[in-house]
């Protein structure tokens, strides 16, 4: 077994993640590779100290932040196991994670569980203490927790040029190559993210930009793409009204759309009983700002259209066929 943990500024979380891996049932012979992606905090120092106590743990330090795709690619290149697990540094695995994912590999090439809360509302969860719902990610096997047969990476791999969205790209590549992969529907892992509000805004902007890149690359329309198109339409209507001297209404329309989308999104991610409405109202205000950052990233990502037309698609990342996962 090879466990690969990628980390960037995860000093508050990394020890808990590594302890959960070391405490898994039926662990057997394993190695634990931590790829520190140019962290500016104490992540590398913490891992170095833990590695003194656990000879199966080793640290790979990247001198600069290269992004998630490069970090995962680096970890896989260093791994020696027949089975390779990807675990993010803010994920805490349940003790039966390995037993259950190995069982599922009898019928698949890659499997993973569901992170709770969902990554795009992790800040809201931590800040406002709402009760999360179990929500399947749009990516079948996410990078935050997944177990793969070694042969997967003999056929496809994470794209080292992608700073985000690398797990979605790998899913498309696996699908295109006819590999079988699935989400285990009742296997839950704890997502204990420690991003600040500002860091979350930047992350959602990058996520939005990556989602537009994904749409332009694979031409598969998902629900976030439809919502983004509606936002662009609301914004265009707002600009038109502002030009015609209806500035207040012009500003209210796109802003109202963002707030409405935020309410619907949070209702899909959290339980919202009447007793939680005061906290939920504050959460909507914060999440609306974050959602606006996501939409901004989607619009900025349109600049990738020209680059995607000029640059040939990497091997293994052609437009995939549809598959029953």
Q: Can you tell me the CATH superfamily of the largest domain?
A: Spore Coat Polysaccharide Biosynthesis Protein SpsA, Chain A
Amount of beta strand: 15-25%
| Largest sheet data | 8 strands, mixed
Cα Rg: 21 Å
Count of discrete structural domains: 2
Report helical residue fraction. Answer: 40-55%
Spans of 5+ residues with little confidence (pLDDT < 50)? Answer: 312-325
Structure description:
- By secondary structure, the chain is of the alpha/beta class.
- It has two domains: 2-194, Alpha-Beta Complex (Spore Coat Polysaccharide Biosynthesis Protein SpsA, Chain A); 205-310, no CATH class.
- The protein is built from twelve helices and ten strands.
- The chain has helices spanning 14-22, 43-53, 68-78, 97-104, 122-128, 152-155, 166-176, 197-218, 223-243, 247-269, 277-300, 304-310, and strands at 2-7, 31-37, 57-62, 83-88, 91-92, 110-116, 131-132, 145-149, 181-191, 270-271.
Short description:
This protein has helices at 14-22, 43-53, 68-78, 97-104, 122-128, 152-155, 166-176, 197-218, 223-243, 247-269, 277-300, 304-310, and strands spanning 2-7, 31-37, 57-62, 83-88, 91-92, 110-116, 131-132, 145-149, 181-191, 270-271.
Secondary-structure map:
Layout: E1 2-7, H1 14-22, E2 31-37, H2 43-53, E3 57-62, H3 68-78, E4 83-88, E5 91-92, H4 97-104, E6 110-116, H5 122-128, E7 131-132, E8 145-149, H6 152-155, H7 166-176, E9 181-191, H8 197-218, H9 223-243, H10 247-269, E10 270-271, H11 277-300, H12 304-310
Parallel strand pairs: 1-2, 1-4, 2-3, 6-9
Antiparallel strand pairs: 4-8, 5-9, 6-8, 7-10
Helix pairs in contact: 8-11, 9-10, 10-11
